[in-house]
Amino acid sequence: MKTKRILDLIGNTPLVESSRLIEKKGVRILMKLEGNNPGGSVKDRPAMNMIKSALERNEIDQNSRLIEATSGNTGIALAMIAGIYKLNMELVMPENSTRERVQTMRAYGAQVTLTPAGNGIEGSRDYAEMKVAKEGFVMLNQFANPDNWKAHYKTTGPEIWRDTDQSVTHFVSAMGTTGTIMGVSTYLKEMNPDIQIIGAQPTDNSKIPGIRKWPEEYLPKIFNRSKVDRIIEVSEEEARAMSIRLAKEEGVFAGMSSGGSVTTALKIANEIEKGVIVCIICDRGDRYLSSDLFD
């Protein structure tokens, strides 16, 4: 009998074609369903790579006190994987994070600390860094850890290249920690330098969970602007509307960052005459049911 462990199910997520969003001969939009990962989001990939690599390098062990700031999905992935490896994990996030996210992290066994909503994820990052500096905690630091983007270089990029039969012309990703777009860009550009890499960022004053326009002092250290051909801004209204359309028209139940990613892909599709556009569906919509996203 051939069986798998839960962590063996991370990656190799489906790539499905949009059937309703665009009807333009020669242009295809393909959505990579990262919600199919066992932890429910694209963040399972970097969380696994960061923990496994740190264990292999003997940088952490079961006596380490791990801490990480998160807006949600990375925290859930880290909580799940830390529990399997019997690691102590404290996750720090803004207090206005959805109940589902907080409860899921606690269900996996992590300690969750909530910081003031007004300080945003930046406040959570400051709190975690203080605990590292003063109390001996260890941070995997998704914002600066190359094992974040390398997870996508090793898995997400090759999967897209394989599953499109090497025909992908454009890759679109929401930009948060930027690990996904950095890793996929690095791989796809090695395969074909002409592939266009497009990042989605929120417009000023738009709040889209999972997508950020970082102040310079908080810009992720793993981010390399030269690996992104174009950045397109998406409004909160556009991202919300697309999340609802995805559920109603495509049967793809996902969060607002996915709405931002697909909105961006559709903008590209309307500009070009021929191409295969792959965009990331970051997570599942059930993570947002206590918010007003689907009201």
UniProtKB/TrEMBL annotation:
It catalyses: O-acetyl-L-serine + hydrogen sulfide = L-cysteine + acetate. Its cofactor is pyridoxal 5'-phosphate. It comes from Lutimonas vermicola. Keywords: Amino-acid biosynthesis, Cysteine biosynthesis, Pyridoxal phosphate, Transferase. Pathway: Amino-acid biosynthesis; L-cysteine biosynthesis; L-cysteine from L-serine: step 2/2. Belongs to the cysteine synthase/cystathionine beta-synthase family. The keyword Amino-acid biosynthesis applies. This is Cysteine synthase. GO terms for molecular function: cysteine synthase activity.
